[in-house]
Write a structure and sequence with these properties.
Layout: E1 2-7, E2 10-19, E3 27-28, E4 34-40, H1 51-59, E5 64-67, H2 81-91, E6 94-99, H3 106-118, E7 123-128, H4 144-161, E8 167-169, E9 178-179, E10 184-185
Parallel strand pairs: 4-5, 5-6, 6-7, 7-8
Antiparallel strand pairs: 1-2, 2-4, 3-4, 9-10
Helix pairs in contact: 3-4
């Protein structure tokens, strides 16, 4: 279920996602999955200072922030990270960090994780980028081998400092999903 809320043209999305495991305090569901309320924080640093944003996060019962969101994570370089750390802390939410493997560094990833950790915000996982199967990212990730090589570098750095944080990798969507970059079927480069 996806809820959208906002004021004055600033929109953000709150979604309930199903996960397995015990990373967060979830609501049990009959399927055996657990449901949590999370927010995908793409570009949220641009409007996080708006009082209605904090109020909405609190009112909706958000328990998890995915930051810095989806595709914007692929070019994110710790812009206004302090604002997102403050929001996470004030809202008592956990964070799923999306690492920038496209143009970022392992040092940036560790600095972000350090910022949340020092503030007392739990990081429940690290996603290694977002949708690198799209043609837009082909200059750095032309095939699965290039992505896997970069993943190994980031995982090594992550596990050296934070050995217990789970890590997720980018997967290719269904073959019949349309690739908005190529106007054809989704790239199979990372399949």
């Amino acid at each position: 279920r996806i809820l959208q809320t906002g004021k004055g043209g600033n929109w953000w999305t709150v979604m309930e996602i199903g996960i397995t495991g015990t990373a967060v305090t979830p609501t049990p569901e009959p399927t055996g999955h657990r449901i949590i309320k999370g927010i995908n924080c793409a570009n949220a640093e641009k409007f996080v200072d708006a009082p209605e944003f904090q109020t909405s996060v609190d009112a909706l019962g958000v328990k998890l922030m995915r930051f810095p969101g989806g595709t914007v994570a692929n070019d994110y370089h710790l812009n206004d990270l302090d604002k997102m750390v403050a929001l996470a802390k004030a809202s008592n939410v956990k964070v799923l960090w999306v690492a920038n493997l496209y143009s970022g560094t392992t040092t940036e990833m560790i600095a972000a994780l350090d910022a949340f950790t020092v503030a007392g915000v739990e990081v429940v996982g690290v996603e290694l980028g977002n949708e690198y199967y799209l043609n837009k990212w082909q200059d750095v990730f032309p095939d699965a081998a290039s992505y896997i090589t970069k993943c190994k570098t980031f995982i090594t750095a992550l596990k050296a400092k934070y050995p217990n944080i789970p890590t997720g990798i980018v997967a290719t969507p269904s073959a019949n999903m349309k690739d908005p970059d190529s106007k054809g079927t989704a790239s199979k480069r990372l399949a």
